[in-house]
Amino acid sequence: MFRLKPPVSADKLLFSGTDLRRLLEALATGGAVIAFQYIGHREPKKSCETANQLLIIVTAISLMIMAVFFALKYPILRALFGDVDNNVMNSALTYLVISEVSYPFLGLYSAGAALFRVMKRTNITLWMAGLPAPAE
Question: Could you tell me if residue 11 is inside a domain?
Fold first, then answer.
């Protein structure tokens, strides 16, 4: 029978967290839309307030998600997968910790990228992603 190495098995067992990333992206996009409405109404002060609130809220929510997963990582993995090999569980724990540490950064990136898009500064978004920006 074909057996995967523990890190590969852990990666396959553990959900990728895409739903949590989508939640942060949706939150960031919604906040950016509100900021864009203020830009369209020529209310820059309210637009800046909205952008600041968006960054604070996205950071707070992503930190809460990270804290919940850190506090409940063992029960979550045991509930999802039951009894698996210890090597696989250790690899899954490592993968989960690394994934959860990234959520605040992904949230801030999503919020920043959404805000730069509504300000029509997509070259900054491309630069943040490590892609070359097209010549203007």
Answer: no
Write out the residue range of the structural domain in which residue 99 sits. Answer: 16-128
Identify whether the C-beta of residue 32 lies closer than 8 Å to the C-beta of residue 117.
yes
Domain count, the chain: 1
Q: Are 104 and 62 in contact (CB under 8 A)?
A: yes
- Taking only the tens place, the pLDDT of each residue in 22-38 is 888 888 889 889 988 99
* Cα–Cα distance, 18 to 15 (Å, whole number): 8
Whether residue 133 is contained in a domain is answered as no
In angstroms, rounded to a whole number, what is the distance separating the alpha carbons of residues 126 and 107?
A: 16
Residue 14, burial from CB neighbour count under 10 angstroms (0-12, 13-18, 19+): buried
Neighbours of 91 (CB within 10 A): 21
